[in-house]
Amino acid sequence: MESERWRNQPKFKAYCDEVLAALEQFDKAKEWADLIKCLQRLAKVLSKYTQFPFVPYKLTFAKRLAQCLNPALPSGVHLKALETDYLIFAKLESSGLAVDLSIYSAGLFPLIQHAATTVKPQILELLEKYYLPLKQELLPALPGLVLSILPGLEDATSELYSRVLTLLDSLAQFTHIGLFYRALWKALLNNPGVRLPALHYLLARLPKENMQLMEPMLPEKNSLVFSAIRAALSDSAVLVQRNMLELLNIHFPLHLNIFTSEETSNLVVSALLVLLRREMSLSRRVFSWLTGNSEEHKDYFLTFGKEVTVLAIKELFSAQYPEANENAATTPYQILMALLEREETGLAILDDVLIFVLRSLYKYRDAACSNKIVKSVNLLFEQLEPPMLWSYLETLLTSECEMCSSVSSIEAISLIDALLDIVPLKDPDIQNIYLPALFHKTT
Predict the structure, then answer these.
(1) How confident is the model over 279-311, as pLDDT tens digits?
(2) Which one is predicted more confidently, 386 or 198?
(3) In a domain? residue 134
(4) Smallest Cα–Cα separation from 281: which of 312, 320, 241?
(5) H-state helical runs in 292-342
(6) What crossing angle do the helices spanning 58-68 and 12-24 adopt, rounded to 10°?
(7) 307, 371, 382: which is closest to 340 by C-alpha?
(8) Res. 197 pLDDT band, cuts 50 70 90
(9) Which residues contact 181 (CB under 8 A, 6 or more apart)?
(10) Radius of gyration of the chain measured on its C-alpha atoms
(11) Residue 247 lies in a domain
């Protein structure tokens, strides 16, 4: 123990005894004003014995400081506790603080998000003065430190915004850029409360269109980063989803092929589910990501977006939805109808995804949600010009389309039969043109 080296020094016993006596006063505290008096007494003892570069009874000491940093207490108690932290950290210096970092951070980190405006600058100063110089020795505390600081970036108009941004930059620089961004992406994945500020930082610091520079900032790209993006896209807060879509558009465009085809299609699934919110700013960003930011939206989608979108639609239709949950079972239809509203996306994928619609209709024909499915199918087909649908059914029978090649004649007839049972057939064109032409293909 550090204190053993000083046991034979004059006043060693007096120092330890006075610290213990001051700590015991906390047991008698009945209100927050008593806590301030206890902290003042501790600070007086620390200031009296500056020759000792250690704190006796450090676990009890740290526990009492953590209690005084409880967010429920008044800011006056917090400020007095921080003053005590300053005295301790100055006494320990960098080498001693690195050893005891965990015990003193346990109370400090949770306070940052909830601290009063008068307290936050003092905490930031403490971190800048004593934590940053630890550099690599900060690594064990890095995930907790990043998580605790991020809320300072939630409001871009805050006076402390630029200071918090600089502090995070310094952490990335002084510790390890890969481990720093690992902590950041983990915060985005596991902590909904800090997703918005985490996205603010990523939007501000990830390089554009430069995978070589961005690679160190994407640790465990195919697991951690991928999962964090999906989590943010599924967040209940519109602002989080909007900023995540903005990040995809700026830093993860489809043409960079940052993820595998399967991973990208899964990200597209999450992005398409955002369309269900029917929120214009979100929908615009989803389509911007799929069709690119250039004027050649259709060409971009055909080159980079179509394949992964078709895979995403297939995944949505293949999912096992509870039959009693009508809203969940009709989700793929709602998304497909949203895609059909845009010419550059809907028409481009139509021939590739209609087979999924027909199979879904057949699958749920006797389910509890069948009425809702039938309604969704009819609404979907109302968006199509009749020749498009009937022409597709003819190609389905003859296996002439690329997606129809795996459909047997027996399955094709079964699917079409299920469709004819639910679509209106009284239109003269259907009775005189389309149905005869379709039946002719069966002969």
Answers:
(1) 999 999 999 999 987 777 889 999 999 999 999
(2) 198
(3) yes
(4) 241
(5) 297-300, 306-318, 326-329, 331-340
(6) 40
(7) 382
(8) very high
(9) 172, 216, 217, 218, 219
(10) 31
(11) no
Kindly report, residue by residue over 73-105, the tens digit of the pLDDT.
Answer: 999 999 999 999 999 999 998 888 999 999 999
Instruction: Please indicate, yes or no, whether residues 342 and 399 belong to a single structural domain of this protein.
Output: no
Give me the mean pLDDT over the 349-372 stretch. Answer: 84
Over 90: is that where the pLDDT of 319 sits? no
Q: What is the pTM of this model?
A: 0.89
- Of 347, 441, 337, 349, give the one whose Cα is nearest residue 397: 441
pLDDT at 325: 62
* Residue written as token pair 């430069």: 210
Q: How far apart are CA 293 and CA 152, in angstroms?
A: 31
Dihedral sign of CA atoms 400, 406, 408, 411 in order: negative
The overall average pLDDT reported for the chain is: 89
Please count the structural domains in the chain: 3
* Token pair 């390890």: residue: 176
SS3 assignment, position 426: coil
- 129, 144, 159 — which closes off a domain? 144
* Residue 142: other Cβ atoms inside 10 A: 19
Q: Are residues 321 and 390 in the same domain?
A: no
User: Which of 360, 384, 408 is the endpoint of a domain?
Assistant: 384
Q: Which residue has the tokens 């969704």?
A: 376
User: Could you list the residue range(s) of the whole structural domain that residue 41 is in?
Assistant: 1-144
CB 438 within 8 A of CB 394: yes
